[in-house]
Design brief:
This protein is an alpha/beta fold. The chain has a single domain, classed as Alpha/Beta hydrolase fold, catalytic domain (Rossmann fold, 3-Layer(aba) Sandwich). It is built from 13 helices and eight strands. Strands 1-2-4-3-5-6-7-8 form an eight-stranded mixed sheet, sandwiched between helices. Helix 3 crosses helix 13 and helix 8 crosses helix 9. The radius of gyration is 20 Å and the shape is globular.
Length: 314
């Protein structure tokens, strides 16, 4: 019976250790109002859509017949495009948005985070803004939403920009620890209540080609916005509903001129996927950046902007 006693004590010690971890890393949800002052200054606005107050930034001349719409990746926000939007808004209409489940927009009332739900959301957003045709750009998850929207509604998407985009069966080299935890269903109760800031900092550094470019302000942003009420649960629901690579055969239906941008130090999605996109898309140009990671547009907005501007102009 000694082994039973040892097993019992091991269980008690594990429970105590887990309880201490939860207590030490406990982070309550943040209400929207407490986050807006820092993360929603002008030109941020909120648009009522699908039962949500959707956080958007719509800047630049309204006479632009072909606005640029920017879609961020998982656990990110429209802030990832601040550099591009600021640089372009003098001449182009630029629309960035916090997708349902992320940023200040927060969770979808329906709890539906499948790609189909996101593509329908994007089209309803364009309708609400009165925009007929766009250049649609997306990073990671936003990239998959972008190309699937282009396939679903080719009359609405004139050009496509894919930035380290999802689409093919993943060959993940290094998933950030925050996403690893989100994939573990057995830890959900704990994960919905804790969010160590050190873990967030590690995850953000993991997706940059040069971790030294990760500022405290960026860590604060990813940390605080992921604490927005409902966002942690939404991330878990998105992970449960994701079908990574499940629709890759549809990529060949993309007819729009496409710019594919990839950071060669991306350790989340292999840079080889950039080549695959340009093999499957007929009118495609691939640009890679040797020193950048999974978020080229955020890590080096000035260095990546010229290729985007050239693509938009042609």
């Amino acid at each position: 019976m000694n082994w039973l006693k040892r097993l019992w004590w091991a269980g008690v010690l594990f429970g105590l250790a887990l309880a201490f971890t939860v207590w030490a890393a406990w982070e309550p949800d943040r209400q929207l109002g407490s986050l807006m002052a820092r993360w929603a200054p002008e030109p941020s606005t909120f648009l009522e859509l699908d039962g949500m107050q959707v956080h958007i930034r719509d800047t630049g001349p309204r006479t632009d017949p072909m606005p640029l719409v920017l879609l961020h990746g998982m656990s990110s926000s429209l802030h990832t495009y601040e550099g591009w939007q600021t640089a372009l808004q003098g001449e182009r209409r630029v629309i960035s948005v916090d997708l349902p489940g992320f940023g200040l927009t927060g969770p979808s009332p329906q709890g539906d985070y499948r790609i189909d739900a996101y593509t329908r959301f994007v089209l309803r957003l364009l309708d609400t803004l009165g925009v007929k045709q766009v250049v649609l750009a997306g990073n990671a998850l936003g990239g998959e939403i972008a190309w699937q929207t282009a396939v679903l509604a080719p009359d609405r998407v004139r050009k496509l920009v894919l930035i380290d985009a999802d689409g093919y069966q993943p060959s993940v080299l290094s998933m950030p620890i925050a996403f690893q935890i989100a994939s573990m269903r057995g830890l959900r109760w704990v994960s919905e209540r804790i969010l160590p800031k050190a873990m967030v900092a590690s995850s953000v550094r993991n997706v940059f080609g040069d971790p030294d470019k990760v500022t405290q302000d960026k860590i604060d942003r990813y940390f605080e916005l992921n604490l927005r009420v409902g966002n942690r649960r939404a991330l878990f629901q998105r992970m449960d509903q994701a079908q990574f690579g499940g629709n890759s055969t549809l990529i060949r239906r993309v007819q729009q001129p496409t710019l594919v941008i990839w950071g060669e130090r991306d350790e989340m999605i292999s840079p080889e996927h950039g080549t695959l996109f340009c093999q499957d898309i007929q009118r495609c140009r691939l640009v890679t950046y040797p020193t950048l990671g999974h978020l080229p547009q955020e890590e080096d907005p000035e260095g990546t902007l010229p290729d985007l501007v050239s693509f938009l102009a042609n």
